[in-house]
Amino acid sequence: MDVFQAILDRQSIRKYVIKDVEPEKLEKVAQAFRMAPSAKNLQNKKLLVVKDQKTKELIRQASPSKADMLIEAPAILIAVGYDKGIMTCGHRADTIDLSIAMSFAILEAFELGLGTCWMANYKEEELKEVLDLPEDASIVAISPIGYAKEIPGKTGRKPLSEVYELRE
Ligand SMILES: Cc1cc2nc3c(=O)[nH]c(=O)nc-3n(C[C@H](O)[C@H](O)[C@H](O)COP(=O)(O)O)c2cc1C
């Protein structure tokens, strides 16, 4: 699949069928995550994939929206960072590195016919406790992953003229 086509067609999926994701597909998603660039190529990151139903329920409890997709999807992706350092630009390395890696992962998931929904609706400290992550870890994003039950209507975007400015 063309990368640009994947960018155009990907949508957030919030309803999933009861069907497991093939381990080879999860591994390919993890490869995309692994190959994403990171500041100074430090790669202080991990993609945690949770399939255990009890843990998924605990993850849902750490999410104020208590979205059903967190227990209905066969797995949840957790983007974990291990570098809270501030870069020269003033932004945290984990926030940027893990956002890029997660973006690569969800696009690859789409290529493989899988749905995802990037989620920021979780209490980081609670979730770290649920997942038994160390103090220095940060959770930058989570997403259910699985086969879509429902494809929602396409969300709109601002016109290019509003988000693109060429200065010559
Ligand atoms: C940083 C970020 C956080 C998000 N958090 C949530 C969330 O907690 N719950 C949810 O249902 N969707 C969440 N979304 C999905 C957005 O609502 C969705 O990407 C946006 O409406 C555009 O729709 P699309 O992904 O289908 O193109 C999040 C997306 C991003 C990028």
Q: Strands across the major sheet, in which order?
A: 1-2-4-3
Number of domains: 1
Q: How far do the termini sit from each other?
A: 33 Å
Mean pLDDT across all residues, rounded?
98
Instruction: Write the H/E string, N to C.
Output: HHEHHEHEHEH
CATH class: Alpha Beta
**What are the distinct ligands in this entry?**
flavin mononucleotide
Q: What is the radius of gyration computed over CA atoms, rounded to a whole number of angstroms?
A: 16 Å
- DSSP helical segment count: 7
- Mind telling me the CATH superfamily name? NADH Oxidase
Morphology = globular
The number of distinct β-strands equals 4
Q: Could you explain how this protein is built, in words?
A:
- It is a single chain.
- With 168 residues, the protein is of the alpha+beta class.
- It has a single domain, classed as 3-Layer(aba) Sandwich (NADH Oxidase).
- The protein has 7 helices and 4 strands.
- Strands 1-2-4-3 form a 4-stranded antiparallel β-sheet, with helices on both faces.
- The protein is globular.
- The relative contact order is 0.24.
- Flavin mononucleotide binds at residues 11-12, 14, 117-121, 155.
